[in-house]
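Bit of a strange request maybe. I'm writing a small parser for structure token strings and I need a real example to test against, not something I typed by hand. Could someone generate the tokens for this chain?
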Amino acid sequence: MQLLVFILVYPILWVISILPHTLFYGVSNVMYFIVFRIVGYRKKVVLDNLKLAFPNKSNDELKSICVNFYKHMCDVFMEMVKTMNLSKAAVKKRFKIVNLEDLKQIEKNKSVLIVCAHYANWEWLVSINNLIDTKGYAVYQKIANKYFDKWIRNLRARWNTTPISQRDTVKTVIRNEKKGVRAIYGMVSDQSPQYSKAQHWSNFMGLNVPIHNGPETLAKKLDLAVVYAKVSKVKRGYYQVEFIPITLAGKETEKNYITEQFLRLTEEQIKEKPEYYLWTHRRWKHAGKKPKFNK
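Reply from user aminoacidic:
Good idea to test on real output. This should exercise your parser:
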């Protein structure tokens, strides 16, 4: 069944990926109409999340953010599909790096962990490996359909990035460090951890929630530099990224410093342009619960 679904869907995705941008974003508009207006995909989840994060905004304001979010979400999915046939020159034009030299300076001396949120277009962030010589890895969560999982891995590998699963991340970094191989690792880090395994709780958008602290654990254990990738949407189909150093020596930071800095930087982006955050995640599902661990 997995193969049948892939065989039926893949040709459609490929045709969409070669469309000129005017038609391409026209398809995204149709997709938005279906997903939001007809299906109402996770609309209640999105509105509930927005109410939690912005309790002082009016219903009209929240509905406006919701509408703009769905339009953006469809664009991001379509832009991931576009990666199938997007040239290096095209992505360089559409995904500009504000301070690439700053990142290069950091990675001259130490392996770097780049952390980002599900904000703007995080998928095209892997394209930075076209512009640097250091080996790059993108941490990802496996997809249940093994054929689509392979498709996603191949998409990211097009831009000189090696995809690695969350399970394989630690051993990959340790192996590289033992060999003296400097590398850049990219990780989306704003997911909600399992309640039973949450080791750190903090205030995020005004609510006390469990926080995923895997990046900090990795950085402190292996003394990685940590950089926040602030991806911003300039206009439809165009983005820019600014690299903001969190620490140049993970081992030397105080406990929870890296995690807290990541949260504050993510909050800042969300508050500035909330429609570009991925509100379909049940990010605040454990808000108000009592932490199981107090560390």
